[in-house]
Structures are given as C-alpha cells and as structure tokens.
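User: Before I run my own analysis I want an independent prediction to cross-check against. Here's the chain; please return only the structure tokens and, at the end, one sentence I can use as a sanity check.
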Amino acid sequence: MKRRFWEEDDKIFGGHLYSNLPLGTFSYPSWGYFGNKGIVLGFYGNGQMSGVINMPIKDRIEHVLTHAGKVHPQLREEYETAYCTFWEKTPYSLGAFAGGGGTGNSERLATLNKPDNRIFIGCAAISGNGGWQEGAITAAWRQVKQLHETVMSRTATA
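Assistant: Structure tokens:
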C-alpha cells in the first residue's frame, strides 16, 4: 500500500478483520507501525472460498479491492501492487498444512485422536484446527491427558 491508511485513518494496529464479506481472513501487519508503506493480507481463504481461489489473479485482486473497499473506502486509492498464491496449486507443496475437510472429517479426526496401543498422535493436523499453533497445542494436551488416563488405569488394575 502507498501508506498505512489502516493505522493513520482507522487506528487499526495489527490483527484481523472478520466480517460477512467474502474475504476469508483479512489481516493487518503487526510490525513496522507508522512506517511509510505497508502490506495487508487481503484474502486468506479455504475450500469455502474456492470460487475466488479459482479466479484468474487479476480477478482475485479486483474481488479483494471491491469487498475490502466496503470497510476501507480508501483501499483502492492506496493500492499499489499485489501478489496471489494458492497453496494447494503450488507445485511440490500441495497445501501449506493438512486440511482434511469435507464429508466424514469429524469421524476421521475422532479415529486419529484415539490411542492405538502405545501410539498417541498429537499434532495440528488432527486437531480440527490444522496449520495453527493453537491446534497443535490443543492436540498435544489432549494426548497428554489420554496418556495419563491410560497409565493411571493400568496402574490401578495392576
């Protein structure tokens, strides 16, 4: 952006915009406050946003400028350039993290979260919030609790 209008005009310093607009997550940088220029993450979506993700890059940019402009009318005037990528279409990546969405996802997650003899899996990919630290921590604590319960039940019957 030509200038950090979200800070100067709207007093927004880092964080995310969540709305009913078809933008997925719109994020503001949490660094470089009061700098001359800045970068916003204008669209971060998933399968629910596949219509946008499958658009040509020029159309994706226009989509963000149009919809985010409803919150920030100055966006189009301050816009300089954009970069677009879709992790699932990036060669040798096939996604930034494990998603596992779709039909039967909760059943798969429940199965993966159950211990299999001495194997306990605790990672973001099976947390229901894959790709984020919160999911990894939640999954790890879940498995620590299950491991503790398993050990205690075996100790009680020994």
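Sanity check: The beta strands are 15-17, 25-28, 41-44.
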